[in-house]
Specification:
This is Transglycosylase SLT domain-containing protein. InterPro entries: Lysozyme-like_dom_sf. It comes from Luteibacter pinisoli. This protein has 235 residues and is mainly alpha-helical. The protein has one domain: Lysozyme, CATH 1.10.530. It has seven helices and three strands. The protein has a three-stranded antiparallel sheet with strand order 1-2-3. A hairpin with a 5-residue loop joins strand 1 and strand 2. Helix 3 crosses helix 7, helix 5 packs across helix 6 and helix 6 crosses helix 7. The chain is globular and about 80 Å long. The chain starts with 64 loop residues before the first helix and ends with a strand.
Length: 235
C-alpha cells in the first residue's frame, strides 16, 4: 500500500529537471538615449554689467577690487594697486609717490584715492603745475595764501612737501565733515571725498555754500567723473 504523498517542501522531495527554452540574443536592443547637450546661455545685453539671467553670477563676481582694475601698478616701495586708467611715466611716478606716502601713514584707501584724484584734477599728476590766473602752484595747486597760513614750515616747491600737506589737509577735513553734517551745514547726501575736494577747491570758511556755488559744483562734477577711474584699490 502506497504511503501518503510527500510534501514539496519535504527534504526528500526533488523536482525533476526542466528544460527551459533558450532566449535569443537581440543584437539591436534599444540603447539608453544620449544625454542632451546643455542649453546655450543667453548673450549679455549690450552694455550690461552684472549677473545675466540664466548665467548665475557675473564673470567678475569673484574677483577682488584690485583684480578688477584694468591697469596694475607697483610702487618703488613694493605696493601693488590698480586703476581704471592708463598713466604716463611721469604720472605713474607721482602717483607711486602718493601711494607709498599714504601706506607709510597707514591711511585708508579712500584717503589715498582722495589725494590721488585731487592731484589729477588739479594738475593732471604734475603735468600742469602752474596757473597763470592765480598764485596756485604745484601738484595740488595750493595758493600762496593757503600755503602761508597752514604750511609755511614746508617748501611749496617740493613735491614731497606738497604730498605731505595734502594728506594732512584731508585728515583735517575728515574731522570737520562729521561736525558739519551734525550742524546741518552740508547736505547729508554729500560724501566725504566730495566734501574734502570742495573744501580744497573753494576754501573751508563757508561749507554751506558748496551746493550753491556754481564753480564748485562744476568742479565737483568733474571730480566725480575722475573718481570712477582713479579711486585706487591696493592688493
Amino acid at each position: 500500500m502506497a504511503g501518503p504523498p510527500r510534501k514539496r517542501n519535504s527534504p526528500d522531495h526533488i523536482d525533476p529537471p526542466v528544460d527551459l527554452p533558450a532566449v535569443p540574443v537581440r543584437e539591436n536592443r534599444p540603447r539608453d538615449p544620449a544625454p542632451r547637450p546643455p542649453a546655450p546661455r543667453p548673450p549679455a545685453p549690450p552694455g550690461h554689467i552684472g549677473p545675466v539671467p540664466g548665467m548665475g553670477s557675473s564673470p567678475g563676481a569673484r574677483l577682488t577690487p584690485y583684480q578688477r582694475g584694468a591697469y596694475k601698478f607697483t610702487t618703488p616701495g613694493g605696493r601693488r594697486y590698480s586703476l581704471q586708467m592708463r598713466l604716463g611715466p611721469s604720472q605713474e611716478a607721482l602717483l607711486n609717490q602718493i601711494i607709498d606716502y599714504g601706506f607709510g601713514l597707514a591711511v585708508s584707501e579712500e584717503t589715498m584715492s582722495i589725494v590721488a584724484v585731487t592731484a589729477f584734477q588739479e594738475s593732471s599728476f604734475g603735468i600742469k603745475n602752474t596757473n597763470p590766473e592765480s598764485s596756485a602752484f604745484g601738484v595740488f595747486q595750493f595758493t600762496r595764501g593757503t600755503w602761508s597760513d597752514h604750511y609755511k614750515h614746508l617748501n611749496r616747491e617740493s613735491t614731497s612737501d606738497q604730498v605731505s600737506a595734502m594728506y594732512d589737509r584731508v585728515e583735517y577735513f575728515r574731522h570737520r565733515y562729521t561736525q558739519h553734517l551734525a550742524e546741518g551745514k552740508i547736505s547729508r547726501s554729500m560724501t566725504f571725498p566730495e566734501y574734502a575736494y570742495a573744501n580744497h577747491k573753494q576754501g573751508q570758511s563757508r561749507p554751506q555754500t558748496f551746493e550753491t556755488n556754481g564753480e564748485t559744483q562744476e568742479a565737483l562734477a568733474s571730480f566725480r567723473d575722475k573718481w570712477l577711474i582713479l579711486s585706487l584699490h591696493a592688493e
